[in-house]
Design brief:
The protein is α+β, with helices and mostly antiparallel strands. The protein is built from nine helices and 20 strands. The chain has a six-stranded mixed β-sheet, sandwiched between helices. A five-stranded antiparallel β-sheet has the order 13-12-11-14-20, with no helix packed on it. The longest helix is centred in the middle third of the chain and has 18 residues, at 176-193.
Length: 360
């Protein structure tokens, strides 16, 4: 396979190499390289239209790439039809058959592969036990709740023992509390079974909760591919900093650099950031909200409070800013004595400061 060494193929369980895709002459994905190891849970995270579902469908064989290769378990599956890839997909709408029972829906994939009806009962029962739905085997899926239908869809995906499980926004139809419960349950199930899985989501909290690593996508490319802790604490680009969690974000210009840190002038005061940028460089500096606190610090800015939001377990302060700047501070618990319109200083450590060169 052109462009990929044998060593690279052996190191990664799934290797998407040089994949490109266009729709009606518009390139939506260029030279995509995406790799993951056996047993990993990886999320494709990004806004609508960023290419994450396109990548998922190419891996599944539901869409053909214009160029590039897909290798799974050392086998080049690029030209194989979807039904020969042994990849299961859980769709956003679950794609269950309303006229069939729960057990019949779960058995559908086995029957499509030529498994005798008599041989389906054992695997179906085991799959339903995995998702705690064995008591519903004889019921029509139309009588189930959204969470129960989601479990059936997962059971149907797992019963064929796929080499790879793909989940396209699997929790989007569920309410928040049930969604969080299903995230925990599904993650535990996949880990216990050692299943390699890819989630597609636009919800950064969901991605952070279920994933070993996250590929943050924007405009048909991966901006950063890392574990959740690294993405949050050291975002590689301004887009990642904004999309994965919230943060104070200030535009400014480097006024001085000594080779180790840069001094940045902003509308709210000078900010010192790790890293050397030439004087005159336009940059964005920021800090995660839980790392800033009222009062002076190594970095200190002055703002007027635009809002004080008490959210039970935390209190969030928002500063009054202009343009695309944003100032926020997250304090644990319920805080009193802070009022809209009052001036406040926020301080944080230089080491916690994020800095990126501004986009041209």
């Amino acid at each position: 396979m052109a462009g990929m060494t044998q060593q690279a193929q052996e190191r990664h369980y799934l290797d998407v190499w040089g994949v490109a895709k266009s729709f009606r002459g518009t390139r939506v994905m260029s030279e995509m390289n995406f790799r993951m190891d056996r047993g990993e849970l990886v999320s494709l995270l990004g806004p609508s239209g960023c290419g994450k579902t396109t990548l998922l469908r190419i891996i599944a064989g539901l869409m053909e790439a214009d160029q590039g290769d897909v290798v799974l378990g050392g086998r080049n599956i690029t030209r194989l039809p979807a039904h020969r890839r042994n990849i299961s997909v859980v769709f956003q709408n679950y794609a269950l058959f309303p006229h069939l029972t729960v057990a019949e829906n779960v058995a559908f994939g086995l029957r499509a592969r030529g498994t005798a009806k008599s041989a389906c009962a054992g695997p179906v029962e085991e799959a339903l036990k995995l998702v705690r739905m064995e008591a519903f085997a004889g019921r029509p899926v139309s009588a189930l709740s959204g969470g129960q239908q989601q479990r059936v869809a997962v059971a149907r995906a797992l019963v064929v023992q796929p080499d790879l499980l793909l989940l396209d926004e699997p929790f989007s139809a569920l309410d928040r509390k049930l969604r969080e419960t299903m995230q925990v349950e599904l993650k535990a199930l996949l880990r216990d079974r050692g299943i390699t899985a890819i989630f597609v989501t636009h919800d950064q909290e969901e991605a952070m909760g279920v994933s070993d690593r996250i590929a943050v996508m924007n405009a048909g490319r991966i901006e950063q591919f890392a574990d959740p802790s690294t993405l949050y604490s050291r975002p590689a680009t301004p887009f990642v900093m904004d999309f994965v969690g919230l943060s104070t974000r200030l535009s400014g210009t480097v006024t001085h650099s000594d080779g180790h840190v840069s001094i940045v002038g902003t509308d709210h005061g000078e900010v010192t950031a790790p890293g050397a940028y030439p004087p005159g460089t336009p940059v964005q500096v920021g800090v995660r909200p839980e790392l800033a606190a009222p009062g002076p610090g190594e970095n200190t800015i002055s703002v007027r409070l635009a809002d004080v939001m008490v959210l039970g377990s935390k209190t969030v302060l928002h500063g009054a800013v202009h343009g695309e700047d944003r100032v926020m501070c997250e304090l644990p618990g319920i805080r009193t004595g802070l009022h809209r319109g009052e001036p406040v200083q926020l301080g944080w450590a230089v080491a916690d400061t994020l800095i990126h060169e501004a986009a041209p």
